[in-house]
Design brief:
This protein has 382 residues and is an alpha+beta fold. The protein has helices at 58-64, 66-72, 126-133, 139-146, 224-230, 234-251, 255-260, 262-278, 296-338, 340-355, 366-374; strands at 4-9, 13-19, 22-27, 30-35, 41-47, 52-53, 73-77, 82-88, 91-96, 101-105, 111-117, 147-152, 156-162, 165-170, 173-178, 184-190, 194-204, 210-221, 282-293.
Length: 382
């Protein structure tokens, strides 16, 4: 028919009817014949499988036709300090920023929006945080704009900083926070014992010998809050204190004292540094001097000194042994001089050793010849 517009609304669709650019009603599924010879009527068709309703004049529609809007839409209106989590058919599907107004079609997709008051508590519940932080696109893009998250390992603690102020310590685990209307930062601090190397320190001893010292220390953060409040950089602070204590301890000793007992140096440095770092929430577990490196010419001199000392020790031992041997011979001679029988036994012992090296021995006069003729001994007169 002339002047009649035919409009078909499918089962999964709805239509917004406007006449003279003003909203009139919402058309449900069906076929409509609209008499419009002057083309002043417009029908905007929407697919309900896309539940979000976007319209340039949505604020006017809600204000002027609210009863109709509430019949066909779920109207979500958030305050300036509220965040919305959108669930579609029971699953998290999106996020709404504070102050947002969003309309969802009532249709095949069940839409529910859960509101969170971020003025009172801006940390996300644990279960919701797990879902959002591990979400895939396109939800992941919304989460990146709305949430700050950090996973604190079991070897560390986290420090939550909000708008430049420390708020609380975060224990190991996943933590997520709404970052609307605030600046959030999470700092991780390792609580394990850490090793630090203070290497290649050029230092003068008390007797003006230049040497290089390498130091190793084991340290740990005990009170995270106190340490952060007092120090800008934990590692740099501990390193400087070790460096200063090492220079002070080495500079107060001569080279001989340093080489004689390194343990004293370890204990002095450890006690000095431990007292300074403990007041800032840190602790030094142990300190050890690894290497004392001397210049080339000083090594040569020390080697010569050590060599001379060893030669002197060897000569002294040799003289002691010679003296002891001479004294033993003198004592033996005295015993033999005082006891002829002992002298005769010594002679026979010597004879036995001689006969071991003789191939053939002829004896005359029997045993007496052996005792008197083979080796004649002049017995001293009484």
């Amino acid at each position: 028919m002339f002047g009649v517009k035919r409009v078909t609304i499918a089962q999964h669709e709805r239509g917004l009817k406007f006449r003279n650019r003003s909203f009139k009603t919402i058309l449900e599924p069906g076929v409509y014949g609209i008499f419009d010879p002057l083309k002043r009527t417009e029908v905007q068709v929407y697919d309900l499988t896309v539940p979000e309703f976007e319209h340039a004049r949505v604020d006017f529609l809600v204000r002027d036709a609210r009863a109709t809007m509430e019949r066909y839409f779920t109207i979500v209106e958030l305050g300036d300090r509220e965040v919305g989590v959108v669930y579609k058919n029971g699953r998290v599907a999106g996020l709404l920023a504070p102050g947002k107004r969003q309309l969802y079609w009532r249709g095949p997709i069940e839409v529910r929006v859960e509101k969170y008051d971020i003025a009172k508590e801006f940390e996300l519940p644990k279960e919701l945080a797990k879902v959002l932080v591990r979400a895939k696109q396109p939800l992941a893009a919304q989460v990146a704009d709305a949430v700050t998250a950090a996973e604190v390992p079991d070897t560390s603690v986290g420090l939550l900083i909000v708008d430049g102020q420390f708020v609380k310590v975060l224990e190991p685990g996943l933590h997520a926070f709404w970052k609307f209307q605030r600046a959030l930062k999470i700092e991780l601090v390792d609580r394990r014992v850490q090793a630090m190397e203070v290497a290649g320190q050029e230092i003068l001893t008390r007797d003006k010998v230049s040497l290089r010292v390498n130091l190793t220390a084991l340290w740990q953060v005990l009170d995270v809050v106190k340490a952060r409040a007092a120090l800008t950089n934990f590692v740099e602070f501990v390193y400087k204190e070790l460096q200063f204590a090492l220079r002070e301890a080495v500079g107060a000793r001569t080279l001989d004292e340093l080489l004689g007992d390194k343990g004293v140096l370890d204990r002095e440095i450890g006690d000095t540094v431990r007292a300074k770092v403990q007041e800032h929430g840190l602790i030094v577990r142990s300190v050890g001097v690894k290497d004392v490196i001397l210049p080339g010419e000083m090594k040569t001199i020390l080697n010569q000194v050590v060599e001379a000392e060893k030669i002197a020790q060897a000569n002294l031992i040799k003289r002691r042994e010679e003296t002891a041997a001479t004294r033993s011979l003198l004592n033996t001679a005295r015993l033999m001089d005082e006891n002829p029988t002992l002298l005769r036994l010594k002679e026979l012992e010597t004879l036995e050793k001689v006969t071991e090296k003789i191939d053939k021995l002829t004896v005359f006069g029997g045993l007496d010849g052996v005792l008197k003729d083979v080796v004649r001994i002049k017995v001293p007169s009484a």
